[in-house]
Amino acid sequence: MAENGTDCDQRRIGMIKEQHNGNFTDSSLLSERKRRDREERLNILLWRQPLVTLQYFFLETLINLKEWTIKLWHRRSILVSFLLTLAALTATYYIEGTHQQYVRYMEKKFFWCAYWVGLGILSSVGLGTGLHTFLLYLGPHIASVTLAAYECNSVNFPEPPYPDQIICPDEETTEGSISLWAIISKVRLEACMWGAGTAIGELPPYFMARAARLSGAEPDDEEYQEFEEMLEHAETAQDFASRAKLAVQNLVQKVGFFGILACASIPNPLFDLAGITCGHFLVPFWTFFGATLIGKAVIKMHIQKLFVIVTFSKHIVEQMVSLIGAIPSIGPSLQKPFQEYLEAQRIKLHHKSDGGMPQGENWLSWMFEKLVIVMVCYFILSIINSMAQSYAKRLQQKMYSEEKTK
């Protein structure tokens, strides 16, 4: 894989020599200027410079829309085919006939899968930033299904997408008849779709590094620059973080498909580095994406799912609540809301939604709802700040190019 980039390395060396022979002879001044520009960009935040941030955000949005429109125009044959397919599906959806039952079934499944794929993409999109949708959505969903399965002794409640609340079926079941495998099978679709979304969200670092390697240019991206510096100082790395990053890079580079699979199959905050490494060393797309998809959507997803199911099994939850009560002084006061929440969930599972039973609000559920709102708002703010900083980077790069032409 390293041999594939020999020509790109030679072009990069040539570009560096040209820069040293041109206007930017003093590399220390250039690096200092880039450092100041980076600090200036990082200060463009909504709570520090609201007007500038909003202005840059809207300008960056317009530029992105223009770029996407141009790309769609260059691929207008694909766009026309997509629109024709969409028109045919729309006609099939609205025309009455015996096929409507299958159309409704496919519609329900499609939107259910798209919902979880979208949450997975939100969780991993970008370089280390994202909305932690496993903790906010998928984890609680698996936990609620687990609690319901043990309480109902069945998983025969409605198929996804569920209604507002899960209701135990009317059929008689034997106590303790529910199995771990039955719960895993019940939540497999949404868990695998979420894992596939996280695999899709890992593609931007790969494409960025691959494009930079093929073009011979060095992108003004902090993650990629950190990767380049790590390669230069690989032998002298001493701290644990640098050694961990270097280990991931060596594993992916030397082992290939199975190295990527190993990195993707465990909760790994350094996996963005694996995407950059694969792009930099020109690993084929399907080797990278195939290993990432299998690792995240199948192996890692089953590990996480099993952990949540075991953690929220009936006897484990009861033991945790009893342990909370054993805490000196504050134990009983903390134990009470947990007991009330679990009892409310049990009651909810055993009455029909039209029964008119009043739903009390527990402070735990209230806090979780507010936490979700806060994290979603923070994610939106981070998107605004990131796009504003991207526009500031465009302006700085334009200044560099103008100075080079003088």
UniProtKB/TrEMBL annotation:
Highest taxon, organism lineage: Eukaryota
Organism annotation: Circaetus pectoralis (black-chested snake-eagle)
Swiss-Prot/TrEMBL keywords: Membrane, Transmembrane, Transmembrane helix
Residue spans crossing the bilayer: 77-95, 115-138, 251-267, 273-294, 306-327, 363-384
Descriptive protein name: VMP1 protein
